[in-house]
Amino acid sequence: NQSIESTAATKSAADDLVRAFKHDSKLQGDWGECVLEELLESLGLQEGIHFETQATLRDAGGNVLYSEETGKTMRPDVIVHLDMKKDVIVDSKVSMTAFMDYVACDDVEQRKTLLKNHIDSLKKHVDELSKKKYTSYVKAPRETVDFVIMFVPRSAALWTALSEEPALWRNAMEKCVYIADEQTLYAALRIVKLTWRQVQQAQNQQRVFELANELLSRVGMFVKQMNAVGDSLDKAQEAYKKGMAKFADKGQSVLTTCYKLKQLGAKQDDKNPLPTELEAVEMQGIGNSSEG
User: Fold this and answer.
1) Most buried pick, 16, 123, 166, 167, via CB within 10 A?
2) What are phi and psi of 197, to 5 degrees?
3) Which residues, at least 6 apart from 274, have a Cβ–Cβ distance to it below 8 Å?
């Protein structure tokens, strides 16, 4: 009995959820956004770098844009950055109510009516996106491609409509709206990912060139500084030679004069005695070897 009651309760909860989902457009929209974001993240695309969610559109002056039809802010579900400059807008707010009614219906004639309602619902959303002209409202210097992607989160919903009306996607494209299900959007986003990989490689190459230029500049600067150090050492060496020449024990050197003063009775400092004549010769020898 408990098992039967539990199964009945589960079925009742599921039915309530289906009814709520069918008649709550916001719930359907949130679900579509979740599917879209999961699809983006499954490809390794990162929010804030490769795409933006619920970003408020602004004009070139930074002013918030409002829809002419509803007066609400222009806020698409996702803006996908195709590269460093171009964007494409993706909208996932597609009603699944008519399609769910169609799937649940057993009456053949009524199913035809419900299928038509489903197709009309898709067409209505195409017209709404076309009138919003999202592609004209991306802030410079970024640009958008000349179409909006209308994401249908259930592949069966799209392909059932296309089976009945094959020209649906072409007519939508003529209004600058590309209808995509999960499979086709996944393929398109893989191309976006490859594009970003190439962008990253190009950025890495540019960074390598910048580092190479910086390294060459630093090496050139180092060589220049070392040459200056060498010149300073040469000048110091020359000054050292001239200074040592003053201690030669011949001619008018300082030591010669000191020796004469000593002979005349001057006393040298015991703590700092004058070098002997032999020491003076050795000092002169050091000066001569440095000169060589």
Assistant:
1) 123
2) -65, -40
3) 255, 258, 259, 262, 268
Longest dimension (CA), the chain: 142
Q: Which of 54-58, 138-142, 253-257 has the lowest mean pLDDT?
A: 54-58
What pLDDT digit, counting tens, does each position of 170-209 carry? 999 999 999 999 888 898 888 888 887 877 777 767 777 7
Give the chain's end-to-end CA distance (angstroms, integer).
114
The number of beta carbons lying within 10 Å of the beta carbon of residue 164 is 13
What is the percentage of the chain residues whose pLDDT exceeds 70? 70
- Report the interhelical angle of 182-245 vs 25-42 (nearest 10°): 50
Q: What is the 3-state secondary structure (H, E, C) of the chain?
A: CHHHHHHHHHHHHHHHHHHHHHHCHHHHHHHHHHHHHHHHHHCCCCECCCEEECCCCECCCCCECECCCCCCECCCCEEEECCCCEEEEEECCCCCHHHHHHHHCCCHHHHHHHHHHHHHHHHHHHHHHHHHCHHHCCCCCCEEEEEEEEECCCHHHHHHHHHHCCCHHHHHHHCCEEEECHHHHHHHHHHHHHHHHHHHHHHHHHHHHHHHHHHHHHHHHHHHHHHHHHHHHHHHHHHHHHHHHCCCCCCCCHHHHHHHHHHCCCCCCCCCCCCCHHHHHHHHHHHHHHHC
Q: Which of 16-20, 77-81, 152-156, 247-251 has the lowest mean pLDDT?
A: 16-20
Please enumerate in sequence order all residues whose Cβ is within 8 A of that of 241, keeping only pairs 6 or more positions apart, or say none.
287, 290, 291
Q: In this structure, what are the phi and psi dihedrals at residue 167, rounded to the nearest 5 degrees?
A: -80, 0
